[in-house]
Structure formats: C-alpha cells, structure tokens
Design a protein that fits this description.
By secondary structure, the chain is of the alpha/beta class. It is built from eight helices and ten strands. Helix 3 links the parallel strand 4 (107-113) and strand 5. It is globular.
C-alpha cells in the first residue's frame, strides 16, 4: 500500500506520518487482505517460503505471511515509511523507495499491492520485482481500476451522490497529477506477459459496503488526508463535512473500486 513520508515524492498519494494514516492503512488491510490471501493460498504459499511484501503499509499482510511461511520461511517487508509494520523473528523490515532499492533474489513470491498504479516508472519496477524471483517464483501485483466509477449502489439523496462524485474527481485528479495511472490494473496482465512471466491470470473483485464500514471509511479517511487538494479542486469545507457525514450514513451502499490481482510465474530454467 504505497504511501509517502513528510517529504513527498511524485508517485505517492498518501503519507504514513500523518495522524490519519493509521486509520487509512487499517481500513485498506480490512478491505484488501481477504482477496490477497486467497490469491496467495491458491498459488501454494507454504512453510519455508521466502516472500517480499512491497508497499507493506500497516503490515497486516506481512504478519499473515509471517505466520504462513513459518517455520523456516522469511518475509521481507518494504515501505517508504515502515513505522506501522509489526516485527517478528522471521520478518525483515526495509525502509526505502522501491524505485531505488535492490531486492533480495531467489524469492518464492513477491507481492506488490497498490504500488505499480502509482509509479510512473512502473515498467522499471516490474522488471525489478521479477529479478527478485527464483525460477518458478510467483509475482502478485494488485491494483485498483479507478476508471470504473459505477460504485454507488444506494444513495441517501442525489446530493449525496454528487458529493461522492466530486470527491472522486478531485482525489483521482490529484493522483494523476503525480503520475498515477488509474487504469493500469487492466493492463497488468499484458505487461507481465510481455515481460516474460508465464501462467498469468487476473482475479477481479469488489464488494459492497454500507456507510460507516469498509470502503466508505477509507474514502472518509482519504478526504481527511487530502483535504487541501480537495479544497483546491473546488470542494468547500462545508462540502467535506457533509461528505464525511454521508460516508457514515447506513443508508449509503457503495462498492469498492475493482481490484485486479494479477499473478504470474517466472519460468523455470531448463
């Protein structure tokens, strides 16, 4: 879950050092962990594996991986600001920007969740992630398709719907201004096949959440973290107060963005 430190860099939309960051990262884990765990279980994740978790965020997936690969396995968690990642005897935490890091090789699996969509250098980073794989190792790339915007399943009012749409317009425009590709997830399979991975498959999923839960809580948190940019995009403080009330309204039902989890395997050398 790619984020920034106080000295923000192009390609990163959020900041792990803010007061709101712990909430945002917790909500992301609650929304995304079940799908990522299913994909990793299906590829055969097992005790003894070495795994790298890139953009580890709160470390909820890192902690789960640590349990799954024990005994004998090891997890490396990478994040620009790893302050929220838990420690364990079989977890190594690395602080740094993946664009400037060299990953340890011979990994059975590398996971990059909500990372590549944010980075203009995504092709370069994809190559780095592949280089870290052992022959037969698996790369798991998970990103939201934020071009899919048909998310309001039930709205308390037309005004509520309009506020949600304005929020998305402002937040996604901010991301794009920093080099994010909101449709990258749809092209990940082609990119991974072109890079030489085999057995490439995508799992595409979303689910609905009522106001005050899941994706609604995440959007509320994002509106707090990026209030300045939303104000610059034309929303008022009154709009944002009302938006946050709407996102807590149980009469609201929203789907999350479509999450594309794309899995590919490095060919086994003859």
């Amino acid at each position: 879950m790619t984020t920034t430190t106080a000295g923000e860099q192009a390609g990163y939309m959020f900041d792990n050092a803010t007061d709101e960051a712990a909430n945002q990262l917790r909500f992301l884990g609650e929304i995304l962990d079940p799908g990522t765990r299913r994909a990793l279980t299906e590829i055969g994740l097992a005790p003894g594996w070495t795994v790298t978790d890139v953009g580890a965020g709160a470390g909820t997936l890192t902690a789960w991986l640590s349990d799954q690969v024990a005994p004998g396995g090891h997890v490396t968690a990478v994040d620009l600001d790893p302050r929220h990642i838990p420690t364990a005897p079989n977890i190594t935490v690395r602080a740094g920007d993946i664009r400037q890091l060299t990953l340890d090789g011979s990994q059975q699996a590398v996971v990059a969740r909500l990372v590549l969509m944010h980075l203009p250098e995504r092709q370069q980073v994809l190559a780095q992630l592949m280089e870290a794989l052992a022959p037969g190792g698996v790369l798991v790339v998970a990103d939201w398709d934020c071009t899919w915007r048909d998310m309001v399943r039930r709205s308390p009012s037309p005004r509520a719907t309009a506020l949600i749409e304005r929020f998305h317009d402002g937040l996604l425009a901010f991301g794009e201004s920093r080099g994010a590709d909101m449709g990258w997830a749809k092209r990940a399979p082609e990119a991974m096949l072109r890079a030489g991975l085999v057995d490439v498959v995508s799992y595409i999923e979303s689910r609905s959440w009522r106001g005050g839960t899941g994706i609604c809580l995440l959007h509320r948190s994002n509106s707090i973290q990026r209030e300045a940019e939303l104000l610059e995009a034309g929303m008022t403080r009154e709009d944002l107060t009302e938006l946050r009330e709407v996102l807590m309204d149980p009469d609201l039902v929203m789907s999350g963005y479509l999450m594309h989890t794309t899995v590919g395997r490095r060919a086994t050398q003859a």
